[in-house]
């Protein structure tokens, strides 16, 4: 009996203790509030750690700059814009969790972000499910037709198509492609394949490389054996960028390289000692070296480094993020509300803003953007030369080839050039 | 596929596998610790090398700095953390995982997501119709040199004798007056230094970032698994065999098949020879001695 | 033996399950969704507690069965959408498949005399094989039926579970996961205190001696490993239905390590501890990630190091014992745990 009494007392004590602990804990975790009457909450999902932080941090900083500038000009609808920006850690599962948190708990009005196409595809269904306005501000493999999604980066018809035309005309028909082995690389490679065919070239080799590969000697000997006139590199992530150093030593630097992601996105021209990145051709919507020729770019680059003096580069994805937020802000002002349907309607009115490299305009049918494109190359000292400028290139493949017209035919699908 | 390109591929694969694995093999073989921070040790070596090379130190000395720096850091980590875990193999998994998280994110915070690299030194030579990077050939020589160094450390020095004794039977070694804790610390430090050396050696051939080490992880684990507990015999044998397998698969079918081939090899070896190549060799020696 | 005694562990378990059962009444729907994710991941920890904590099989490969379950469910249900009762059937078959895969692997390992750290290494390799393989399935060649495996992008739009007319989302899904967790938790508790359970612990403590007693050690090991595989597969399926999504990163080295870390840091010989620590860890890690702090991973890493250094038996188990001593005047020291097991074995 006595024993039972003691343990009863113990249990009571224990329960009280537990109760105190629980209360203390719940006191600590203050719950966050959604957009209130004084602020507008904008969600941002970017990788600030892990493999993709190289670009993610640039984009995060560009978003901070954009929001700062909006707030300096009085905010939106008389309210201050606040960024709600978790770190997605280059992990698609974290992307999903954080997207749900931003939507369901923090009640943000729109979400910007994602770097890799895999991350975008991980969260896009969540956006669709929850009717959340989503901006993917990144160059990508193209083909996404989704009413809730706006894509402000460059697409293949703005990058790969003009680039391949230029390369084949200038250097010759034999093309070899190496690409990261996931959807971005696979679909981009399909675009290369299609462009090569249209421009009378010949694809002499195509290779997909797993994302964790960092040693390229066999790939290099295969490329050399195929004797291409042009080498297309669509490599992603830190491991794969080791290719260039190895190609410079074991490969054939006289073969020109072409890419839609390098230089302007992951600034290899500054990360590798010359002449590793020499003789590379890239089409891009923006890169910081354009500031020598375009005053808009200079203003943007200067503002960026004034706010983030320790950053190493500001490239095309940072500009896309910045432009995405500016377009959204303009649409909110036009719609006079942050309500999703009204903002989408305002965006679909073909809203346009004057970006760092000229006007950026929403194409209502496809939810992509019409923008100026630049073809640049690197000289033997890895300095950027501007070869060509394409004015107001339309992202019209979806609307012309696939008959996409989002305001009229709502859908959520990603088309591929060789698929359906 | 020509023989010369296969040869070239083998030279690359062999040196990569050996150098990726050697530090891990020392720590696993001698201490039975699965060091999940191995990739981060390699990455630190690459950072130290790159930073000092940019500061004007000749590359070869920078690489030595990388090895020594990581060796010292390994010693500190051992004294602070690992030494409390001797004999707790599986707990070391958790701790080294924690260490790898701290180091990787710490480097991101301190140095940002990228660092300007140094370019690969020494040009290239043409031989039998294909181009070889001289540095790659040098790496091959260095990987053999590293194995030889390992042989010297563990077979020809007093420390080596003590450490082998400790590895075989810690209790008896201790009762014979060997300071086993010091032996373990030294071993961990040597393993870390080898990882640092690897990082330094590969720094001029790859992009420098906090995730630098992840490119080595799979290969290093596979090599150690196939090799077994003895870092010297195991690593050199498995580096050779896996190098051949990988280079043949890689040159004939592509990178992906090379990777899968490595992994399947590893699974087969554990199933057929759970103690790895070194286990087989040791058994063979024991049998021979008995006869 | 233990059931009769009032111990912190049992009270805490009862309190937690009680709290979990009533909490959807007063927390918002997002939190419910979130907790159901944490609970789904708890099965993975339970599977490792069973095979590592109780049977002494150190596996890095629970992620393998997690991924197999998730992918199998995705491919099956997406191919047969519209078929009635396909989702619960997919769940059931997926769990069986996970168990079967684990049994086959276990059969080869344990009957082949592979044990201890080598099991860890072989399962680690298998994880890496699957992660490499699934990562390169982005091409159109990799379709199973109408479902593209999707490579690094993974598979999206995996249907949620449906029990007859009830779609398991939101609170329904939460209660579904919770009830399964509760049932499995109780079963595991009962099982490990049964006679077979004692044999399993005996295998952990000494394989040779257990064999001498006439137990078929490899058989028991394979069966326990299969049960662990089934649990991990269940976890994978629940995860896939939670996010409607599965990727090769389910097989990645980090995914393979996390269960080991959770179970080791929480207390690997204790089911309650591993559930609690899993939920706390995911909650805390998510909070850190949401805060966007660049120190998140550093803090997480430091915590793991400190826990392993200073509370080697696991933080939750340590707290249990501390509280036992404080409130119930039991002179329970860490070593007593093992004695208790021995004692149980004799009685059991």
UniProtKB/TrEMBL annotation, chain B:
Coiled coil: none annotated. The chain crosses the membrane at residues 55-77, 89-112, 132-154, 183-203, 260-281. It is found in: Cell membrane. One of its GO terms (molecular function) is transmembrane transporter activity. Keywords: Amino-acid transport, Cell membrane, Membrane, Transmembrane, Transmembrane helix, Transport. GO terms for biological process: amino acid transport. This is Branched-chain amino acid ABC transporter permease. It comes from Sporolactobacillus shoreae. CDD domains: TM_PBP1_LivH_like (cd06582). It is a multi-pass membrane protein.
Automatic annotation (TrEMBL), chain C:
It is found in: Cell membrane. It is a multi-pass membrane protein. Pfam families: BPD_transp_2. One of its GO terms (cellular component) is plasma membrane. Keywords: Cell membrane, Membrane, Transmembrane, Transmembrane helix. The chain crosses the membrane at residues 12-39, 51-76, 88-111, 117-134, 173-192, 213-239, 245-264, 271-289, 295-320. GO terms for molecular function: branched-chain amino acid transmembrane transporter activity. Its main location: membrane. The keyword Transport does not apply. It comes from the Bacteria. PANTHER family: HIGH-AFFINITY BRANCHED-CHAIN AMINO ACID TRANSPORT PROTEIN BRAE, HIGH-AFFINITY BRANCHED-CHAIN AMINO ACID TRANSPORT SYSTEM PERMEASE. This is Urea ABC transporter permease.
């Amino acid at each position: 009996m006595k024993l039972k009494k003691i343990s009863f007392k113990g249990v009571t004590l224990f329960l009280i203790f537990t109760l105190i602990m629980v209360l203390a804990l719940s006191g600590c975790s203050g719950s966050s509030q959604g957009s209130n009457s004084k602020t507008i909450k904008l969600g941002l999902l970017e990788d600030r750690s892990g493999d993709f932080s190289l670009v993610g941090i640039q984009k995060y900083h560009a978003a901070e700059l954009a929001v700062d500038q909006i707030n300096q000009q009085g905010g939106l609808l008389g309210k201050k814009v606040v960024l709600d920006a978790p770190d997605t850690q280059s992990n698609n599962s974290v992307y999903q969790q954080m997207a749900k948190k931003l939507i369901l708990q923090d009640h943000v009005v729109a979400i910007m972000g994602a770097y890799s196409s895999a991350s975008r595809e991980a969260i896009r269904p969540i956006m669709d499910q929850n009717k959340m306005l989503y901006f993917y501000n990144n160059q990508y493999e193209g083909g996404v037709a989704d009413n809730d999604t706006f894509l402000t980066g460059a697409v293949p018809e703005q990058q790969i198509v003009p680039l391949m035309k230029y390369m084949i005309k200038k250097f010759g028909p034999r093309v070899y492609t190496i690409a990261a082995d996931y959807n971005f690389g696979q679909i981009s490679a399909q675009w290369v394949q299609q462009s090569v065919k249209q421009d009378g070239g010949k694809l002499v080799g195509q290779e997909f490389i797993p994302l964790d590969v960092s040693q390229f000697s066999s790939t290099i000997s295969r490329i050399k054996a195929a004797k291409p006139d042009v080498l297309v590199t669509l490599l992603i992530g830190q491991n794969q960028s080791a290719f260039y150093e190895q190609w410079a030593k074991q490969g054939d630097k006289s073969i020109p390289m072409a890419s839609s992601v390098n230089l302007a996105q992951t600034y290899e021209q500054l990360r590798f000692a010359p002449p590793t990145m020499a003789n590379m051709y890239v089409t891009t919507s923006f890169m910081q070296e354009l500031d020598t020729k375009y005053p808009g770019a200079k203003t943007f680059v200067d503002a960026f480094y004034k706010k983030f003096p320790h950053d190493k580069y500001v490239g095309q994805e940072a500009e896309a993020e910045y432009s995405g937020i500016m377009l959204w802000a303009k649409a909110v002002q036009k719609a006079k509300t942050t309500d999703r349907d009204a903002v989408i309607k305002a965006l679909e009115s073909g809203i346009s803003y004057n970006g760092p490299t000229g006007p950026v305009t929403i194409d209502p049918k496809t939810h992509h953007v019409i923008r100026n494109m630049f073809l640049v190359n690197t000289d033997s000292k890895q300095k950027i030369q501007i070869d060509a400028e394409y004015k107001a290139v339309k992202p019209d493949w979806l609307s012309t080839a696939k008959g996409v017209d989002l305001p009229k035919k709502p859908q959520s699908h990603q088309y591929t050039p060789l698929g359906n | 596929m020509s023989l010369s390109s296969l040869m070239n591929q083998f030279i690359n694969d062999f040196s990569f596998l050996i150098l990726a694995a050697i530090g891990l093999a020392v720590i696993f073989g001698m201490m039975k610790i699965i060091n999940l921070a191995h990739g981060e040790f390699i990455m630190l070596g690459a950072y130290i090398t790159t930073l000092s090379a940019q500061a004007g130190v000749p590359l070869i000395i920078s690489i030595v700095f990388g090895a020594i720096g990581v060796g010292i850091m390994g010693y500190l980590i051992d004294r602070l953390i690992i030494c409390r875990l001797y004999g707790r193999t599986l707990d070391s998994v958790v701790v080294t995982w924690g260490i790898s998280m701290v180091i990787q994110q710490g480097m991101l915070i301190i140095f940002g997501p990228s660092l300007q690299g140094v370019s690969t030194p020494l040009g290239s030579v043409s031989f039998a119709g294909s181009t070889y990077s001289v540095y790659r050939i040098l790496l091959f020589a260095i990987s053999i040199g590293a194995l030889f160094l390992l042989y010297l450390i563990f077979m020809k020095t007093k420390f080596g004798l003590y450490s082998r004794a400790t590895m075989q039977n810690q209790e008896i070694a201790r009762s014979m007056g060997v300071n086993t804790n010091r032996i373990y610390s030294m071993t961990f430090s040597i393993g870390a230094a080898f990882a640092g050396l690897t990082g330094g050696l590969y720094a001029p051939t790859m992009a420098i970032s906090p995730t630098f080490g992840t490119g080595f992880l799979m290969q290093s684990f596979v090599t150690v698994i196939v090799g077994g507990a003895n870092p010297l015999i195991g690593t050199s044998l498995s580096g050779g065999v896996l190098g051949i397998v990988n280079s043949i698969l890689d040159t004939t079918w592509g990178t992906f098949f090379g990777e899968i081939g490595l992994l399947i090899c590893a699974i087969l070896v554990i199933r057929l020879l759970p103690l790895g190549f070194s286990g087989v060799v040791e058994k063979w020696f024991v049998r021979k001695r008995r006869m | 033996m233990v059931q009769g005694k009032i111990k912190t562990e049992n009270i805490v378990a009862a309190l937690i399950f009680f709290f979990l059962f009533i909490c959807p009444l007063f927390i918002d729907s997002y939190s419910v969704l979130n907790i159901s994710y944490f609970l789904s991941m708890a099965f993975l920890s339970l599977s490792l507690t069973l095979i590592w904590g109780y049977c002494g099989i150190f596996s890095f490969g629970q992620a393998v069965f997690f991924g197999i379950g998730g992918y199998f469910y995705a491919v099956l249900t997406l191919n047969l959408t519209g078929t009635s009762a396909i989702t619960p059937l997919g769940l059931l078959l997926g769990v069986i498949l996970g168990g079967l895969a684990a049994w086959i692997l276990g059969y080869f390992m344990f009957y082949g005399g592979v044990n201890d750290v080598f099991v860890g290494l072989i399962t680690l390799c298998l994880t890496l094989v699957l992660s490499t393989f699934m990562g390169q399935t982005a091409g159109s060649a990799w379709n199973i039926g109408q479902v593209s495996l999707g490579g690094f992008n993974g598979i999206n739009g995996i249907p949620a579970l449906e029990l007859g007319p009830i779609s398991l989302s939101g609170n329904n899904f939460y209660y579904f996961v919770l009830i399964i967790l509760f049932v499995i938790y109780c079963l595991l508790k009962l099982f490990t205190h049964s006679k077979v359970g004692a044999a399993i612990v005996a295998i952990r403590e000494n394989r040779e001696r257990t064999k001498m007693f006439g137990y078929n050690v490899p058989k028991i090991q394979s069966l326990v490993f299969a049960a662990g595989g089934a649990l991990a597969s269940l976890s994978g399926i629940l995860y896939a239905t939670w996010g409607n999504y599965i990727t090769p990163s389910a097989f990645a080295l980090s995914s393979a390590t996390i269960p080991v870390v959770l179970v080791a840091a929480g207390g690997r010989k204790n089911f309650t501890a591993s559930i609690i620590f899993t939920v706390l860890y995911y909650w805390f890690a998510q909070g850190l990630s949401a805060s966007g702090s660049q120190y998140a991973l550093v803090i997480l890493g430091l915590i793991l190091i400190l826990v392993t250094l200073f509370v080697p038996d696991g933080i939750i188990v340590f707290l249990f014992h501390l509280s036992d001593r404080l409130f119930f005047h039991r002179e329970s020291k860490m070593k007593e745990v093992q004695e208790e097991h021995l004692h149980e074995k004799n009685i059991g």
